[in-house]
Give the backbone structure.
Amino acid sequence: MANATADSAFVRRLAAAARAAWWTFLIGVGLATAQFLAYAALSHCEAAWSGMAGFMQTEPQVLRHLFLRFMFAVRLGLVVVAMGAIFLSLWACRLRRIGDA
Protein backbone atom coordinates (compact mmCIF):
# COMPACT_ATOMS: atom_id res chain seq x y z
CA MET A 1 0.00 0.00 0.00
CA ALA A 2 2.84 2.44 0.75
CA ASN A 3 4.19 1.96 -2.76
CA ALA A 4 0.81 2.85 -4.32
CA THR A 5 0.67 6.04 -2.24
CA ALA A 6 4.16 7.01 -3.34
CA ASP A 7 3.27 6.26 -6.94
CA SER A 8 0.12 8.39 -6.81
CA ALA A 9 2.10 11.23 -5.21
CA PHE A 10 4.65 10.94 -8.02
CA VAL A 11 1.91 11.01 -10.65
CA ARG A 12 0.38 14.13 -9.05
CA ARG A 13 3.77 15.85 -9.01
CA LEU A 14 4.43 14.80 -12.59
CA ALA A 15 1.05 16.19 -13.68
CA ALA A 16 1.81 19.44 -11.82
CA ALA A 17 5.14 19.68 -13.63
CA ALA A 18 3.35 19.15 -16.96
CA ARG A 19 0.87 21.93 -16.13
CA ALA A 20 3.72 24.24 -15.15
CA ALA A 21 5.51 23.48 -18.42
CA TRP A 22 2.37 24.28 -20.43
CA TRP A 23 1.90 27.56 -18.56
CA THR A 24 5.55 28.43 -19.18
CA PHE A 25 5.06 27.70 -22.87
CA LEU A 26 1.88 29.80 -23.10
CA ILE A 27 3.46 32.75 -21.30
CA GLY A 28 6.54 32.51 -23.53
CA VAL A 29 4.41 32.50 -26.67
CA GLY A 30 2.48 35.50 -25.38
CA LEU A 31 5.66 37.45 -24.62
CA ALA A 32 7.25 36.56 -27.95
CA THR A 33 4.10 37.61 -29.79
CA ALA A 34 3.93 40.89 -27.88
CA GLN A 35 7.59 41.54 -28.65
CA PHE A 36 7.06 40.86 -32.34
CA LEU A 37 3.99 43.10 -32.47
CA ALA A 38 5.91 45.89 -30.72
CA TYR A 39 8.74 45.50 -33.22
CA ALA A 40 6.28 45.57 -36.13
CA ALA A 41 4.67 48.72 -34.74
CA LEU A 42 8.03 50.46 -34.23
CA SER A 43 9.84 49.23 -37.33
CA HIS A 44 8.52 52.09 -39.50
CA CYS A 45 10.25 54.73 -37.33
CA GLU A 46 13.67 53.06 -37.22
CA ALA A 47 15.73 56.23 -37.62
CA ALA A 48 14.25 57.90 -34.54
CA TRP A 49 14.60 55.08 -32.03
CA SER A 50 17.93 53.80 -33.35
CA GLY A 51 19.47 57.22 -32.76
CA MET A 52 18.07 57.44 -29.24
CA ALA A 53 19.28 53.95 -28.34
CA GLY A 54 22.86 54.71 -29.35
CA PHE A 55 22.91 52.67 -32.56
CA MET A 56 23.83 55.59 -34.81
CA GLN A 57 26.48 53.63 -36.70
CA THR A 58 24.32 50.54 -37.07
CA GLU A 59 22.24 50.27 -40.20
CA PRO A 60 18.56 49.31 -39.94
CA GLN A 61 19.13 46.11 -41.93
CA VAL A 62 21.65 44.93 -39.33
CA LEU A 63 19.23 45.62 -36.49
CA ARG A 64 16.45 43.82 -38.36
CA HIS A 65 18.74 40.81 -38.91
CA LEU A 66 19.73 40.73 -35.22
CA PHE A 67 16.10 40.92 -34.14
CA LEU A 68 15.13 38.05 -36.44
CA ARG A 69 17.99 35.92 -35.09
CA PHE A 70 16.92 36.67 -31.54
CA MET A 71 13.31 35.76 -32.33
CA PHE A 72 14.50 32.52 -33.93
CA ALA A 73 16.36 31.66 -30.71
CA VAL A 74 13.29 32.47 -28.60
CA ARG A 75 11.03 30.34 -30.79
CA LEU A 76 13.53 27.49 -30.73
CA GLY A 77 13.54 27.65 -26.93
CA LEU A 78 9.75 27.57 -26.95
CA VAL A 79 9.82 24.45 -29.13
CA VAL A 80 12.06 22.77 -26.54
CA VAL A 81 9.68 23.76 -23.73
CA ALA A 82 6.70 22.47 -25.75
CA MET A 83 8.43 19.14 -26.37
CA GLY A 84 9.15 18.81 -22.65
CA ALA A 85 5.54 19.65 -21.81
CA ILE A 86 4.26 17.06 -24.28
CA PHE A 87 6.60 14.42 -22.84
CA LEU A 88 5.55 15.17 -19.25
CA SER A 89 1.85 15.16 -20.17
CA LEU A 90 2.07 11.84 -21.99
CA TRP A 91 4.13 10.28 -19.21
CA ALA A 92 1.66 11.39 -16.52
CA CYS A 93 -1.27 10.14 -18.59
CA ARG A 94 0.37 6.76 -19.11
CA LEU A 95 1.22 6.39 -15.43
CA ARG A 96 -2.37 7.21 -14.49
CA ARG A 97 -3.63 4.51 -16.88
CA ILE A 98 -1.22 1.96 -15.46
CA GLY A 99 -2.27 2.91 -11.90
CA ASP A 100 -5.97 2.58 -12.73
CA ALA A 101 -5.53 -0.87 -14.24
About this structure: The radius of gyration is 22 Å. Helices lie at 2-42, 46-52, 60-100. The mean pLDDT is 85.
